[in-house]
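your task:
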Amino acid sequence: MDADRNSPQENGGDSHLSDDEKCHHVAKKLKSSSPITEPEIRTEFSHHDPRVARINNGSFGSCPASVIAAQNLWQRLFLQQPDDFYFNRLKSSIFESRAVIKDLVNAEDVSDISIVDNATTAAAIVLQQIGWAFSEGRFQKGDAVVMLHYAYGAVKKSIQAYVARAGGFVIEVELPFPVQSDEQIVLEFRKALDKGKSNGRKVRLAVIDHITSMPTVLIPVKELTRICREEGVDQVFVDAAHAIGNVDIDVKEIGADFYTSNLHKWFFCPPSVAFLYCKKSSSLADLHHPVVSHEYGNGLAVESAWIGTRDYSAQLVVPSVIDFVNRFEGGIEGIRKRNHEEVVKMGEMLAESWGTPLGTPPEMCSSMIMVGLPASLGISSEKDTLKLRTHLRKKFEIEVPIYYQAPKDVENGMSKNNYVTGYARISHQVYNVVDDYHRFREAINQLIRDGFNCELLKDD
């Protein structure tokens, strides 16, 4: 298969077609009777910098060339006739993407699905209506919102901006790390709910990550949601930024009121696009996009589908992504399974080489896993993690995030000098090869041989 044949520049045989026809035909041309080959995968991601060992898919995701080609066609279709695109193409095409997402996550109806820019936007939508409830007196000042200590930084800031400022009492669930079992998470979560209900308060919202970002841990969201129902928590919002394309999602089974995930991280969409699922029993009338357009009041999905003139193409390529993933054996389920197996294998290989632990057991990771870095590197602060990450990028051309874990509890007579305080978060996506992780292993080993310590790095 010639993987470039769908590029607008290469489609000489389609020169008689309009861009509109190409948008509807490009997906058909992607289909192949045989599974995608390794050379075809390399071609799909040939726009990646070939010098870089890119083991950080979790931060920004990745988009294959065929999907970029589909996006370019949508962009050209808008630019050639914006009025026709707006009145006759945009809403129906976004609806088609919503219908695909609805099936992927097992939502009851397409009306449950809205498409937004990213999970941070979805969080603002949910938290905005919680803030209004406090401001308008429907919630009492001091009622609680519970979130995980590992919640994404932007979501924490959103809770501060929308909820704490309006009078909500914010409680963080202090989760252990490294973590060995779901039971540890459940125990700490119950403690936080008890704290939230103390002194006659009510817990109005629980914000639960499906997969935490840093450190990355797969959270038992179904069980935590069930506990919330038993304990009388008003609403449950699952921040699953890393989930779609990474783990199985069944929103009906999970049972949360709200669930969001980015499609540009692990589902091969270009940036940026996410969905927000809203359970029908939730207060849908109180949910509004934070950018107010003339669609205000027509329902969240309609409001989100038009927030002014901008590039909506990332939201329109979801059907093309389906065609891309179906070129792989087992489709998206097969991709998820292989990514998980490979990241565990690579994580174990690195941990064995460095004599360090993993941050979680394999069943508590997705396509990302935390690997301890040798204590001799001298990681003693978050600032050190950023300096070391920059050093790995500039000297070794390796891209990987690093997490700092303060030496709180040193057990079994281990001195703080031997305590693992730095963990690398490695990802595995279909474009990764074993050499990416071998390069990382050898880079760290070389730093150790050279007597490297983070104190040697200057601030950039």
The two ends are 46 Å apart (CA to CA). The first strand starts at residue 53 and ends at 54. The longest helix spans residues 331-354. Residues 301 and 445 are 51 Å apart (CA to CA).
